[in-house]
Amino acid sequence: MRYRSLLNKTKFQVLVILVLCIQMLGPQQWLPISSVNSEGITGTEPKITITSPKSDEFSNVANVIISGTVENYIAGMTISIFIGAEKKGTSYIVNGNSWSITDVFFPEGTHNIEARLVDADGITVASTTITNLTIDFPPAIKFKDLDEGGFSNSHSIELITEPNATVQICLKDCTEEASSTWITVEKNSSEKWIYTNPQLAEGPQTVYARAIDLAGNVGTPQGITYTKDTLRPTIVLGSIVPAYTEDMTQVSIDTEIKFRVSDANALKEVDIDKSISVTSNGKDVPGDIKYNSDTKEISFIPSVKPLTRSTKYNVFISPLGVIDSAGNSAFPKFWSFTTESTPPITDAESGQKLYEIDYNGKNGEKVHRESPHAAYADNVNVCVNCHNTHEARNQNLLEQKQNSENGNTDKHVDDYCMACHDGTVAPMPENSQARHKHSAAIDIAGKPSGSSCASCHSPHNESSEGNPNLAPDQITYTHDSGILKDDKPVGKINSKEQLCESCHESGLGELFAQSEVDVEYRVFQYKKNISAIGIYEDFDLCLRCHNLNTKNKYSKIADIASYYNNLTEETKKNYETNPELSYSDREFTSDEMQFSKHIIKAQDGSPLAGHLPCAECHDTHGSNNIKQLNTSLGHSNIKSFTAEDKNETEPDSQVVKVNIGGKEIEFKLLSDKKERDFCLACHSDGKTAVYGVEGKKYESTRPEHTAYPSEPCSFCHGRGANKVERALSAAHAPKTGMVPE
I need a labelling partner for 155 at 20 to 30 A (CA). Which of 45, 128, 587, 625 fits? Predict the structure, then answer.
């Protein structure tokens, strides 16, 4: 009993002390009452953790499940997810130690995520944060500058995706299993993914691409089908009416000006109006341009028809107007023709047209033109236009009799040509008024002649389709070994050196017929940008004078033929041993490439597969530049060039003395600087092209170029014993650069 009373007394004392303490300390000093969790364990402060995801992790989905644990919570508490001050997803009502929020969506990027434990009064009682959670979706990829079903004129495919991804491209067997067919595309120096494959075939292509990001996500492959077309449209001049030959003359005033386009794909018709320009006497000829999409023929219809007689017309096909669906533009083309001076001659009774020359071919019939100097076989009276039988004093009966009363003096031979070719009766030769003209001439015996015109045009020839400009011709006749003259075999006679008439007064036709195999007839050629193949005979109108034999006779005449004699009609025939072989399509041999760097294969549809034609550098009738050099060089990205020899402080030319046969001969060459300017017109930037072939770009930092900055190009690229020979060599057949010893 006494023990129980003592116990009750003790309890009372403890209670009194407790009440006193509460009164003395106040409620604010009272320790928090620990809550009891669902398992009945007594803790201290609330605590929250994020167990998934973790800091510095990657996720390839936007919907991230955030989960974790909570301790020491009380009823009514919730958990919310925040990125900065922005709340994400739905709050979670705490009902156990584990929690999970499933409706949190994040944009791509790196995020810091905070989980807050909030009581019923909205007060945050605990929080936790994870850092650098990177949301990285499977990377998307797309093709730049390519459209489904479209065209591309590039060997390259550019792809776009997110930074730092790995890009792969596939051309065939593009499945997940066939991983070996996926090609990794490396970034270039411009931080672009560009796949380049020049061997990718022309025509329809189906290509797939995909990207793989740093998280290892493989993006969905994207495919595209397009047409690869890197080929420029080709201008086909064979469809022109009349059929094209160089510098046609006697062309019908009713002729059509047209050409055909060869291309696998359609043209952009919106640009057709820019395709043809026609000029005459420096002025545009007005007209309309028509396009036949079925035949791909483009025609120029002059506003005023017919064309003017005895007039030269220049035709230019512009790349700005001939563009295919892939954006490839045609190579530029240009040609000229001169219209007839008189109408066709017809027979009065039958109405049949005389002097058969197939120039027109319109609607299938032949149209005939009178020879510009008339037909001598039918009317010898036309001879008096130039020859004066009774009053001329020289053996060719060309000179007028001296007349002191009216002041007449002996006429120069070319005066007879220019009497008509002054723009009145016949067109004036182009650039004939230029300061520098082809004044040198040679007669039929190979001696210097008084007529520059007659050295390239034979006034006695009759115009024909194969020889519209009356170029000189020749007959080579090989006599039977038994035919003697002055007790010696006659052998081979070339009419260039000796006229047949010097021995035969008549019956030549019968004689030729008896020995047809021994007779060879040819017209000296001067082919240009449309018809030249690049063999010696294409340029023999020039080379018949500019050769070694003539140089040996007349030392100041340059030997150009030696730079062209490796490719001839014979080499062409030897190559084309069957109809399937084309000389123009052949692959060049190493010997050809070493012989001359100006041997090229045309890429613009022209047949050239050999030496550059003379007309690419020289103007036929005259130029304000010395050496009759062209003032415009190249077919595309054309460059201007002047060498007028006017500047006294820095002349465009130089005089070089060379000892030939014990004599000191003076030659006029371009100055060293002007020679460099001339070569760099095509080679400065690698963009100027002839026949679709771009000139090799000049490398200014090349050691040889920096070592000899003031030397002419012929110093290294020419061959020869002196400066004149090296200049000729570098101009007509440049070689691989070699510094002379």
Answer: 587
Q: Are residues 274 and 178 in the same domain?
A: no
Q: How large is the average pLDDT for residues 273-299? A: 92
* C-alpha pair distances (Å), 354 with each of 338, 357, 462: 20, 9, 13
Both 198 and 296 in one domain: the answer is no
Residue 260: strand, helix, or coil: strand
In a domain, 408, yes or no: no
Does 158 lie in the same domain as 249?
Answer: no
Q: Is the same domain home to 566 and 630? A: yes
Whether 619 contacts 628, CB under 8 Å: yes
Count CA atoms within 13 Å of residue 241 on its CB side.
18
Inter-residue contact 46 to 72 (CB < 8 Å): yes
Residue 5 has pLDDT above 50, yes or no: no
* Tokens describing residue 28: 């604010």
| DSSP string of 587-645, one letter each residue | PPPHHHHHH-TTEEE-SSS---EEEPPGGGTB-SS-BSSGGGB-SEE-SBS-EE----S
Would you list the DSSP string of 217-246?
Answer: -BPPPEEEEEEE--PPPEEEGGGSSSPP-T
Is 17's pLDDT higher than 80? no
Chosen domain end from 289, 318, 339:
339
Residue 516 lies in a domain: no
Both 174 and 266 in one domain: the answer is no
CB contact at 8 A, 544 and 446: no
Spatial distance between the Cα atoms of 168 and 658, rounded to a whole number of angstroms: 66
What torsion, rounded to 10 degrees, do the Cα atoms 512, 514, 516, 522 define? 0
Which domain-ending residue is among 339, 367, 395? 339
Contact by Cβ (8 Å): 633, 649: no
- Checking if the pLDDT of 664 tops 50, the result is yes
Whether residue 291 sits in one domain with residue 184: no
State how beta strands 473-478 and 124-135 pair. Answer: unpaired
CATH number of residue 94's parent domain:
2.60.40.10
Are 214 and 192 in contact, with CB atoms under 8 Å apart?
Answer: no
- In this prediction, residues 117-132 reach a mean pLDDT of 94
Across the beta sheet with 47-52, what order do the strands follow?
47-52, 63-71, 98-105
Could you check whether the bond before residue 242 is cis, i.e. omega within 30 degrees of 0?
yes
Give the global pTM. Answer: 0.71
Query: Between the ranges 81-85, 374-378, 453-457, where is the mean pLDDT highest?
Result: 81-85
Is 700 within a domain? yes
